[in-house]
Amino acid sequence: MWLCIFAIEAMAQPVLIIDKEGKAKRQRYHIGDKIWIKTHSLQLVSGQITNLDVVSVEIDNQIIDLDSIAVVYKHKRLLRLGSDFLWKGGAMYFVLDVVNSAIVGAKPVFSSETALLSAGLITSGIALRQLSVKRYKFYKKWRIRVVVF
Phi/psi of residue 37, each to 5°? Predict the structure, then answer.
């Protein structure tokens, strides 16, 4: 009998669901997941979900109504890592080439090839950083709700 009671309790888990109307795309957040949101009042809130209710979500003991959420951000770690690697690598390549040319005594100290290569790496790193964040905007086609399974 205890097993049945525990099985029923384990199944009644609230889930924050973000889905697109008419599509099968769906993002799920459970209690304990990290989330980044922006409200309609332009307040940024990030942290761990501590409680889910049908009309609100609690993030690090701060209660936010579902109707007041404007955007949920999902960070893509691998793209962010690649972005950091590219722009830092481009800057380091430029500095190392200029220092090496100065030590060797080459004229000019930095060449146009070095400037173009490092500028390309830095630019691609900055562009990739913009792609590393997915934005779910609720005033467009996305909707947010809490479902208890």
Answer: -135, 160
Extract the tokens encoding 147.
Answer: 């479902």
Q: By residue range, what is the domain housing residue 141? A: 2-75+133-148
- Which distant-in-sequence residues (6+ apart) come within 8 Å of 40 by Cβ? 68, 69, 70
Give the model confidence (pLDDT) of 9-29 as tens digits: 556 789 998 888 777 878 899
Q: How many domains does the chain have?
A: 2
pTM metric for this prediction: 0.69
Whole-angstrom distance, CA of residue 58 vs CA of residue 102: 57
Contact 110, 101 (CB under 8 A): yes
Sequential DSSP letters for 82-111: HHHHHHHHHHHHHHHHHHHHHHHT-SSSS-
